Amino acid sequence: MRNEADVIETWLNHHLNLFDDLFIADHLSDDGTYEFLKSVADADDRVHLIRYEAPSYDQDVVFDALRRQVLDTSEAELLFVLDADEFLPFDSTAAFQEALEAAAEHNLMRFPWRNAYPSVPDGFGVAFDGFASKELSGYGKIAMRRHIAADGLYRIPKGAHWLEHSMIGVVEGADVGELLHFPVRSIDQIWRKVMQGCEAYLAIPGYDGLEGAHWIDLLEALLSGRTDWSLAPILVHDYGRKRTPETAAQAIESFEPRSFQFIAAAAGAAAIVRSAAVEPVVQADRATAGRKLLARLQGLSAELRGATGKDNRISVVDGVIRHPSDLVASRFSALPPLDAATPTLPELTDALDSAFRDIEDRAPSAWGEHIPFLFALIALVRPRRYVELGVHNGTSFFAACQAMRFEGVEGECIAVDNWIGDPHAGAHSPNVFNTFVGRLFEKYSDLAGFIRKDFAQASEQFAPGSVDLLHIDGFHTLAAVRGDFNGWLDKLSDHGVVLFHDTNEFQSDFGVWRFWRLIRERYPFVEFGHGHGLGVLVVGEKSRLRGVLQGGETLITSPRLNELYQVVFGNLGRLNWSPDTGVPIGQVVPQLEGLSPRHEAAQLRELLRVQELVVQEQAERIRDLQARLNRYDRSIYGRARSAIRRMRLGTSSGS
């Protein structure tokens, strides 16, 4: 339900007299509907209220959440799906029970609409005169037995006009009785309904302009020039189907006068005051907004067609419908204090060894060459909470998750992004967020989650001292990166470390490099020049990166060791992130099974030829990398090689 203040009280009282329980989802109402429903739910345990806060038109997601909540929290044997403008036409509980007994043989039922509207705008109430269609609509709402609702092969699609079965497709119920449907109750109400319906469809990731065409049809009708109540029968007639000139001409003739009477509140029930109605929208303003909205709907880019749909794996958390990995309502407390601990040489060697791990998630990214260092960093500092600002498709975030799991770190990873994009990264495809969330939920739901907010808004969920490792990779102007750092600085624990990407990117108005050169004067740091540049700022006074090498006086962040890090992680990053050039033999050999010896030999010869080409390509790449490596200052390379040898010897002698 959304913004149904003019009808919700009548609807609620009427159906509380027919049903044992009402499970209601509110979708961002701002006209007093939600406040009214909450006051009723607080006073009457038969009313169960949840909220859906996504802007998009995800009615099927809401249906699924409500269905599961009914099954999990009640013993209901029959589930009805109703909108706030739909009324079962029974004047008593006894009449309703009699109708249900007559339909006892059916497991799935459909109550066809009888479209109707009040005789005057804003004339809806407990009792009023109006008009009803002479014939029942081809649309309606379903009701199902509990065992059907509990069957995971069925889903309730948008509209709930039928069920969809994963194997046999659309399943329509047996027509039983009828359902009074009042989609238009005033000019202002229908304008709001149509505008919010169109905007909600536009907010669906990957929306292609095909689904929900009746909303576009209604918007076109509202923009046709009629502004009085004679528009009502044209809009209501055959609601949900495409309108034609003939339909409009025949609309009035399809209705007949009728008086409507609904069940009022029970005697002695406390009166609940509804919030004041929203101010009417001025005709000129809504027409202008409507034309702009219609232009957007008609101009949808064809490249959106076929994009991956939303993730329907949602649940009800504290009365709100959310994806299980959605942390938008979570609060993150300060991390407990830990003593400073200087890393041992074996720990440093183990961290270096972690850098050689295979990268599991390889979405296209400018961050890829830094993943070996991230593996080593997480192995060494073992962050209890990793937060990434600016996630995009999640390449670096999933690398952090992979490292946390492999190293057995008892911590969590939190992705923060609005998944809209910016002038530097470009506008994100509607599919980016859904793909990211699907991957996160599939693989890392036990240790990671996301917050879909701007960075400043998300920071309000974190207490001071609540983050060990912060990765800043958002909008790259000087002002933006400064704001991100200052806004999250107090969230860092006394072990806090901050990563800045693109410190070596100087194009356009990129300003990370400028901020980095200023901020590194205040804290110990390590920096890398490859992969667009990465800055590692050691903010926490007790961070392990502030230590010295065991048995010596060299700081881990010393310039001398930074030269070693650049050689090791720069080349390792390029090698590990380079694209695969061949097909793993394990993927080819199984294909040989079942072949004759002659064909098998031929296939093996071809396989060996392919592998020889792969080896040649790899050898050429190694020679190229060696040439690049030799171009480094030889004194730096010599010191790096000697340092690695000393570390290995030290580890061997101490083991």
UniProtKB/TrEMBL annotation:
SUPFAM superfamilies: Nucleotide-diphospho-sugar transferases, S-adenosyl-L-methionine-dependent methyltransferases. The keyword Coiled coil applies. GO terms for cellular component: plasma membrane. GO terms for molecular function: methyltransferase activity. GO terms for biological process: DIM/DIP cell wall layer assembly; methylation. InterPro entries: Nucleotide-diphossugar_trans, SAM-dependent_MTases_sf. It comes from Kaistia hirudinis. This is Uncharacterized protein. Residues 608-635 form a coiled coil. Keywords: Coiled coil, Methyltransferase, Transferase.
